[in-house]
């Protein structure tokens, strides 16, 4: 009898910790604390698979120097990923050209946007995105497009050259625990399926937290990465980075086990 190969473990969703909010607190004094690099080191040491930053043009939190210093730090963690988010029409491409992170996440925010609140729209955004995506890929940088969970948009995201999409999860987070939660989850599951069918990898982020994360991972199989900042850093103020990162990894594992 042939010896069947062992079942392949489903790929675990990577946790990329967004350290924007560490920088936000640091920037309220001239003392350099809390230290963004130290925070990143603690998160990586606790098992996070990546670090994310979203350097906004006004430098309200992550500054140019942070982006470079974190890129240098990531060299010491070759099995982890660095993800830089932003709008390629603003400051993002300069960072990508200089630092060549593992992933660039394109987000269609305005210069003074309070926080990200929508994804790219096709066909209207295709023409201007295409050359930036091509440039990133020529530099060896994976491109993920921040997208609303609309299945009808996914083939166009692939056609413009993206490797992945990041599903904007604030609407799910807002519906969590309400009667709308099941229908919202279906929307994300369908969008993720459409993305995978189009040949895209699927990431997700925005307002994910310890309450809503496991249900999301369970409902959206094949999720490659979640980037989490605001809630995770708030939790770390109470629990410390190590226990917090472990708690989020446990949520991902619980969601994957129930998928
Ligand atoms: C694209 C995205 O969802 C995140 O980058 C999020 O917007 C974090 O940005 P802020 O920390 O500036 O709110
Ligand atoms: N891409 C989303 C991200 O990096 C973090 O978003 P949030 O958890 O701060 O809302």
UniProtKB/TrEMBL annotation:
Q: What class of enzyme is it?
A: transferase
Q: Give the catalysed reaction(s), semicolon-separated.
A: 3-amino-2-oxopropyl phosphate + 1-deoxy-D-xylulose 5-phosphate = pyridoxine 5'-phosphate + phosphate + 2 H2O + H(+)
Can you tell me which residues bind 1-deoxy-D-xylulose 5-phosphate?
56, 61, 115
The question of whether Transferase is a record keyword is answered with: yes
- Site positions (Transition state stabilizer) are 166
- Classification via InterPro entries: Aldolase_TIM (IPR013785), PyrdxlP_synth_PdxJ (IPR004569), Pyridoxine-5'_phos_synth (IPR036130)
The annotated pathway is: Cofactor biosynthesis; pyridoxine 5'-phosphate biosynthesis; pyridoxine 5'-phosphate from D-erythrose 4-phosphate: step 5/5
Q: State its Enzyme Commission number(s).
A: 2.6.99.2
Keywords for this protein: Cytoplasm, Pyridoxine biosynthesis, Transferase
Instruction: List ligand-binding residues for 3-amino-2-oxopropyl phosphate.
Output: 18, 29, 207, 229-230
Keyword Cytoplasm listed? The answer is yes
Catalytic residues per the record?
54, 85, 206
One MF term in GO for this entry? pyridoxine 5'-phosphate synthase activity
| Localization | Cytoplasm
The record describes its quaternary structure and partners as:
Homooctamer; tetramer of dimers.
Q: What functional role does this protein have?
A: Catalyzes the complicated ring closure reaction between the two acyclic compounds 1-deoxy-D-xylulose-5-phosphate (DXP) and 3-amino-2-oxopropyl phosphate (1-amino-acetone-3-phosphate or AAP) to form pyridoxine 5'-phosphate (PNP) and inorganic phosphate.
Q: Which family does it belong to?
A: Belongs to the PNP synthase family.
NCBIfam families, alphabetically? pdxJ, PRK05265.1-4
Q: What is the protein's given name?
A: Pyridoxine 5'-phosphate synthase
In its UniProt entry, the species of origin is given as: Verminephrobacter aporrectodeae subsp. tuberculatae
């Amino acid at each position: 009898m042939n010896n069947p190969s062992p079942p392949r473990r489903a790929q675990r969703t990577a946790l990329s910790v967004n350290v924007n909010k560490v920088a936000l607190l640091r920037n309220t004094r001239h003392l350099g604390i809390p230290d963004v690099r130290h925070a990143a080191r603690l998160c990586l040491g606790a098992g996070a698979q990546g670090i994310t930053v979203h350097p906004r043009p006004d430098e309200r939190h992550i500054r140019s120097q942070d982006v470079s210093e974190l890129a240098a730090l990531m060299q010491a963690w070759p099995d982890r990923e660095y993800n830089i988010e932003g709008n390629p029409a603003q400051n993002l491409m300069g960072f990508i050209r200089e630092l060549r992170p593992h992933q660039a996440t394109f987000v269609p925010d305005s210069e003074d946007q309070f926080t990200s609140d929508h994804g790219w729209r096709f066909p209207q955004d295709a023409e201007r995105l295409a050359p930036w995506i091509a440039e990133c890929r020529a530099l060896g940088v994976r491109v993920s497009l921040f997208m609303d969970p609309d299945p009808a948009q996914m083939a166009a995201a692939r056609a413009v050259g993206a490797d992945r999409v990041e599903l904007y999860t604030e609407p799910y987070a807002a519906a969590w625990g309400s009667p709308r939660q099941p229908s919202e989850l279906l929307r994300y599951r369908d969008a993720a399926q459409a993305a995978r069918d189009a040949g895209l990898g699927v990431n997700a982020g925005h307002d994910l937290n310890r309450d809503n994360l496991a249900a999301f991972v369970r409902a959206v199989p094949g999720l490659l990465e979640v980037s989490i900042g605001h809630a995770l850093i708030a939790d770390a103020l109470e629990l410390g980075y190590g226990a917090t990162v472990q708690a989020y990894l446990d949520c991902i594992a619980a969601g994957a086990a129930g998928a």
